[in-house]
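Newbie here. two chains, one complex. Structure please?
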Amino acid sequence: MTASTAKRKLFLGTFVHSKALSELEYLHDSAIAVDETGKIVAVDKDCGDLAKARETLLPRLGWNEADVEFVQSKDGEFFFPGFIDTHIHASQYPNAGIFGSSTLLDWLNTYTFPLESSLADPVKARRVYARVIRKTLAHGTTCAAYYATINVETTNLLADLCLTAGQRALVGRVCMDSALSPDFYKDASPEAGEEATRKCIAYIKQVDPNMDLVRPIITPRFAPACSAELMKRLGKLAEEENLPIQTHISENKNEIALVKELFPPAVLARATGDESLAKQHESTYAGVYDAFGLLTSRTILAHGVHLTPSELKLIADRGATISHCPCSNSSLASGAAPIRRLLLDHGIPVGLGTDVSGGYSASILEAAREAVLVSRHVCFNAPRDGERDKLSVEEVLWLATRGGARVVGLEGKVGAFEEGMEWDAQLVSLGRVVGEEGDGGMEDEVEGERGNVDVFGWESWPDRIAKRHICATQPNPT
Amino acid sequence: MTASTAKRKLFLGTFVHSKALSELEYLHDSAIAVDETGKIVAVDKDCGDLAKARETLLPRLGWNEADVEFVQSKDGEFFFPGFIDTHIHASQYPNAGIFGSSTLLDWLNTYTFPLESSLADPVKARRVYARVIRKTLAHGTTCAAYYATINVETTNLLADLCLTAGQRALVGRVCMDSALSPDFYKDASPEAGEEATRKCIAYIKQVDPNMDLVRPIITPRFAPACSAELMKRLGKLAEEENLPIQTHISENKNEIALVKELFPPAVLARATGDESLAKQHESTYAGVYDAFGLLTSRTILAHGVHLTPSELKLIADRGATISHCPCSNSSLASGAAPIRRLLLDHGIPVGLGTDVSGGYSASILEAAREAVLVSRHVCFNAPRDGERDKLSVEEVLWLATRGGARVVGLEGKVGAFEEGMEWDAQLVSLGRVVGEEGDGGMEDEVEGERGNVDVFGWESWPDRIAKRHICATQPNPT
């Protein structure tokens, strides 16, 4: 259910959304009115059914019942804001779930570059991109920040397919021109990389002129894959076009060492013509992006596992954001990002990313659960006061919705149920309650086998959310 | 599909099982013959279909086709040994997936003891136990080492239900009599604890005289919940009856400190009457169990996260085994167990446990995946040579089958497909391949939406196993 609705709609039933970082709000017997443009015009906590709506809400809105479509959540169902995947490589989807024993830099050469390169074939690209959109939507992702490949034609195809499927998306044509990139898969020059990016921007502006659903995003792959000149051009382009930026940062210790080696102060100074800036940044990973104008309040930095205090300060000062990708960070043995400290001590906006295919799953709920688990590893490895590193279920659901909305630049537009926001939601079923209190035996269970856990009926709403929403991460049938 | 088969059977198709710790064997176009007692009498790698079987295998076995039932795996299906859950609290199943922010000792008081206590009610117990058996079977668990509760009647009910469902099980009546146990849920005395355990043993011997499917297991909850006298009695009882033992060890640092405090050398010396032994064990957690005769080659120790070198040596010397429960260890922020080092450096047998409800899922595949991920946390926290801490997909599947078989005392009987073993298997479907190579678009996907990942058709068998078997952990429909 994304924004575009031809008709006024009234949703009735149970709504759950994040009120604050650590607080979910449960709106039972409530109503949300959505106008013909897809905007929420009323959230009514005292209007649980059609009769009440006729009596109070419709007259208040001045709506005729005949013009309104009604959608009622059933018993055991609730509306939840659509999830936001702040970091996903659409082009790597076929490799999701293939656990390598390698770490980041090997992984790219063995698994990633050959697959991405092969998606210059529009037939194969259509097959892969259609599937990843379908799967992420099935998992409740109504908005995704996608990396495509360096290929212009099939990057544009990804934008087309998102539009067709009604999935909100930031679509990035990947830029990479450095020696780290293989000969068979790289931009011929910084100019060529910029030019190709401009073509994708122009295309997306043409197919979605108001960028209601699909927006281009400037995508330097990551510093080691880009020349200084390419990053400089992309920084300027982002500013000129007022566009968001996505890239990777501080995922893995070897990668960090590589950035230091590739961009010593002298290189930064030469590239930027600003010696004092180059010196000041001391070739930190964040400093390199900042030197090229890539560290902005519209920048999504994936990972941020090993950021130094000075980098954290710089990122916070620029208002740049972090996409936390716990499934990937664990799979590739990158490390455990101290997310609660980023949020609370540094005030850095954070969302969740699946990072397919470094991450093994296209599900943001899977990322949410792993975020809970990884935060416990941060906790027991913290030198002191580890308890405050633990993310709660409420907090990871905030990251998956409101946190993500800030990261992709849609704060106040999606991620929650508030007047003035877009109606961007998923209908979640908790599944059948297993029998009823006092009932029993094996014979009463004929369905509801989906998922890892069962709801017995006596659980509180927060417990039900934890059990069925966080632990049972299979997709809804589409 | 568990042991009892009324008729001779011939299974045809693809079989996958662990050949060694790091090696899966893929038997395509093969046949496995199972006699009327459920035993594998032939594994034929050159017999892929019925015609070939008629020609070669049946004559060799001297079997008449009319007496044989044939089962052929379909395209995209394969037979895999049933999973073994070496540590699961059947009585805590309703709490699975409720993430607390607490750690072990709080968790017990808040979530666990009240629920376990309530299962003295046979109606409620039947409802919970029937469900956990059904769910674990749906997840491919054909054998489980269960903790029930202190209640005799409903522990016996759990054994009955396992028998009815055909699930192999070790069923443990929980023993706990110390001050740590709440007044509403404890054994009145060491004698009472022993007596109740004897009743459960007698009952199980009566309902399954040869212990083909269900066996009793001596279950002192964990050292802090038991008096020295109770543990001493249980150690003797296990020896006298030649029974397996299960308990917890070294899960959490506070718990370890508590054991040290509760069982100083003087207490051990008094309880065992053996001062030198007490001194020698220095009140380590493993030493406490050993002092009471509870550390044997039939002992399953759940967790073992923080074991010291001397404890590891003691455990290895006694031939005791570890149940690795990664979902639980992460959820409860207990720590990350260095499993590969236990296996390879210390030669300690290890299996996987879901540890419901410290663990959030009754799926051994979920535990397998988390074992992979947690091993990477061990890796990047290891002071040096961390690479060898990484568990591969092949290794966690070994833990889930052959490793588990050793832990529950069924080595050579279940866990693989070898002549002389029981036929104890699950039929796994890899699901529909997404279109075909060169095919494309959104329109060709009408089903196969289950799971987190898709198989595109070009993947190798090891990659398919990783994608669909490890990453898509929803249960098979029953």
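Moderator note: Chain A touches chain B through 78 residues (CB under 8 Å). The CA atoms of residues 131 and 381 of chain A lie 39 Å apart. Thread marked as resolved.
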